[in-house]
Amino acid sequence: MTDLSDLFDKKIYDTIAKVPNDFAHYEKKLVDWCNLNTGSRNYLGLKQFLPLLEEAFGALPGVISRKKLNPEKVVMTNGKVEEVDLGHSFHLKVRPDAPIQIVLTGHYDTVFPIDSPFQSVTPTDNDELNGPGVADMKGGILVMLEGLKAFEHYEFKDNIGYEVLLSPDEEIGSLGSAHLLHEIGSRSDLGLTYEPALPDGSMAGARKGSANFALIIHGKSAHVGRAHKEGISAILAAAKFVTSLEANNDNNHGVTFNCGKIDGGSANNVVPDIAIVRFNIRAPSPETMNWAVGVINENIAAISSNGIHCHLEGGISRPPKPKNKAQEQIMSDISRIAEGLGIKMQFKDTGGVCEGNNLFASGCPNIDTLGVLGGNIHSSDEYVLKSSFGKRAALTTAILCAYASGKLDAKALRKLM
Questions:
Q1: Domain CATH number, residue 91
Q2: Dist. CA 269–CA 222, nearest whole Å
Q3: What is the Cα 249 distance to its own chain's centre?
Q4: What total number of domains does the chain contain?
Q5: Maximum Cα–Cα distance for the chain, whole Å?
Q6: Do 160 and 215 sit in the same domain of this protein?
Q7: 127 and 144, same domain (yes or no)
Q8: Which one of 318, 352, 378 terminates a domain?
Q9: Is the pTM value of this prediction over 0.85?
Q10: Looking at 302, 318, 334, which one is the last position of a domain?
Q11: Same domain flag for 175 and 225
Q12: What's the CA gap between 383 and 390, in Å, rounded?
C-alpha cells in the first residue's frame, strides 16, 4: 500500500484489514444468489430474493424495511396503457441523526428472464467466474455488504449514517424506484452505487442521460382491396416518424436517437389503424436533452395530420450526469483513497446510465461503479474477477473511514453541486 499519512492512519488500516480478502468467503452466497433468477419481469423470483437480502444485511445495525415502488405504466400492443406492480425495494437505515449521511444503492434484478438458458453459475479454476448477475450486480451487493460490516468496527463510525436502497427495477430504468432514489439522494451528502467496474478497474465518469418513450399512433382501418384510399395507415406514419427522428443522430453534441421496436397492424389485407414506436434517446447534458425532446415533439407534429392522431407516453428516466465541480472533487477523493490501497483509479465517460444519474439529479454527488470488476454484462458470457471482491469491499470501507475521520470533507461535496 502507498503511504498517504494525511489520509490514512493505523486505525483506518486496521479497520480495512477486517474485510475478508479470500473469495471463498463470498463464493457460496454469490452462487446461491445468482442461481435464483431475478429477471426484472420475474416478479416471483424478485419477491423470493428479498428475504435473502434482509437476512444478509441483518448483520448490520439499523432498521430494515421494504419500500413500495410506484407502478410502471406499460403501453400494450393494442395501444392501451396498463399499470404493472413492480414490488418493493430493500431499505436499510443506520444512524439517521449522524452528521454525515451517505446513500448506497444497487439493484437485485438482472436482464435475464425466467426462460433464459443462462440460469446458473459455472465454476472455474481461473480468476473468472461466469454466471447471471455475478458482476451486474449481485457481486456488487456483496462488496457493499462486506465493506459496511468492516466499517462498523471503526472508531469514528458514529460520524456517518447511511441508507442502503436495493431495487428490483434498475434494468428497466428504475421506473418504480426513481422517487425513492430522489428522496434519499436529496438528504444525502454523497452517494455510492455498486455497478461493476471494467475488468481493468476503470470507473464511470460523466454519464449521458436516458429517456424512453412509446409513441401511440392512431389511423383508420379499411379493406385494402375495396377501400384502400379510405384507410389511413398508422404504420406508414410510424415509418415516417422513425426515419425522420433517426435522421437527427449526430446533429447535436452526441445526442442519439434509437427506435428499438414497432408494434401495430393486423392482417395484410387491412389498412393498419394502430402503430406503436418504442424509442430511446441519450444526451450528455440537460440542454441537449431538452433539445432532443423538442425534436421528438416536432416530428410528432409533422405526422399528426390528415387523420393521424398521436399520444406520447414515457419520459426522462435517467437525467444526464455531467462532470461538475462536485463530481470532479469526489472522483479526486476516491482516487486518493484507492491509491492508499494500491489501486490505480481512472474514470472514463460513458453513454451508459444507472442509478447514479438519478442521485445526481437529486443534488447528490456520487460514484457509481464501486462494484466488482467484470465484463460481458447483459450476455451469457457475463463474468466477474474473483480477486476483485476483497479489494472492492476494502475500497468501500476505506471511503467510509476517510470521510468519517474528517480526513476528507463529505459536507463540502454537496456545496459544489
A1: 3.40.630.10
A2: 9
A3: 24
A4: 2
A5: 87
A6: no
A7: yes
A8: 318
A9: yes
A10: 318
A11: no
A12: 16
Within this chain, do residues 159 and 141 fall inside the same structural domain, yes or no? yes
Range of the domain at 35: 10-207+321-415
Tell me, letter by letter, the H, E, C secondary structure of the chain.
Answer: CCCCCCCCCHHHHHHHCCCCCCCHHHHHHHHHHHCCCCECCCHHHHHHHHHHHHHHHCCCCCEEEEEECCCEEEECCCCCEEEECCCEEEEEEECCCCCEEEEEEEECCECCCCCCCCCCCECCCCCEEECCCCCCCHHHHHHHHHHHHHHCCCCCHHHEEEEEEEECCHHHCCCCCHHHHHHHHCCCCEEEEECCECCCCCEEEEECEEEEEEEEEECECCECCCCHHHCECHHHHHHHHHHHHHCCCCCCCCCEEEEEEEEECCCCCECCCEEEEEEEEEECCHHHHHHHHHHHHHHHHHHCCCCCEEEEEEEEEECCECCCHHHHHHHHHHHHHHHHCCCCCCEEEECCCCHHHHHHHCCCCEECECCCEEECCCCCCCEEECCHHHHHHHHHHHHHHHHHCCCCCHHHHHHCC
d(CA 307, CA 27): 60
Whether residues 18 and 48 share a domain: the answer is: yes
Cis status, amide bond into 137, omega within 30 of 0: yes
Tens-digit pLDDT profile for the chain (417 aa)? Answer: 444 557 889 999 999 999 999 999 999 999 999 999 999 999 999 999 999 999 999 999 999 999 999 999 999 999 999 999 999 999 999 999 999 999 999 999 999 999 999 999 998 889 999 999 999 999 999 999 999 999 999 999 999 999 999 999 999 999 999 999 999 999 999 999 999 998 889 999 999 999 999 999 999 999 999 999 999 999 999 999 999 999 999 776 789 999 999 999 999 999 999 999 999 999 999 999 999 999 999 999 999 999 999 999 999 999 999 999 999 999 999 999 999 898 989 999 998 999 999 999 999 999 999 999 999 999 999 999 999 999 999 999 999 999 999 999 999 999 998
CA distance 400 to 160: 8
Do 98 and 196 lie in one domain? The reply is yes
> 113 with 19, same domain?
yes
Q: Are both 54 and 105 inside the same structural domain? A: yes
Q: Which three cell numbers stand for residue 272?
A: 393498419
Distance between alpha carbon 76 and the CA centroid of its chain, in Å? 24
Other Cβ atoms within 10 Å of 59 Cβ, number: 11
- 63 located within any domain: yes
Does any domain span residue 99? yes
